[in-house]
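Molecular record:
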Amino acid sequence: MRNIGKVIPDDDPLIDRVPEWQRDWRNAFQMMVDAGAVKECDTIEELEEALGLREDVLVQAVKDWNAACEAGEDTVPTYKYDPSWLIPISEPPYYGAKLGGNLFATKCGLRINPKMQVIDTEGAVIPGLYAGWHTAGGSNGENNLAGKPFNGLYGDVGLSFLGGYMAAGSIIGEI
């Protein structure tokens, strides 16, 4: 496994909120592999099957990603990645997991485009379905090491209003 993740530094002001064994992401990741929550395979095709995906969904996504990496530019029409993030998926083992929501929040969220429209697993817009803030990923990202929304309850309500406002603006603009 390549070491491309971040380890929480000892001088982080929120370090006390993270259990010691979780401060190095590799520990928790290996526990997930050992428990079967994360699948480890030698080929993309094996991983696609282990995750129960339709044939060629993951294989094609990896081909598209690697083509973007080779070109040095992300061409996917949703969220454009910074070129420094374009690291090809080319060396086994390969890892994958099925993700979903949890009670009261999502941690990864649905994939959306700039109009807040939800994108399906094949990259197409799902007509009439929009997502805002936490449902679309929200504040539960890299800047949030301990898993709590960065602004607390009232900030989250404001952010949810903003996501809803953006989705409504997109809907009105398309009528």
In short: Strands lie at 39-41, 94-96, 117-119, 125-130. The chain has four helices and four strands. Residues 111 and 119 are 5 Å apart (CA to CA). The first strand starts at residue 39 and ends at 41.
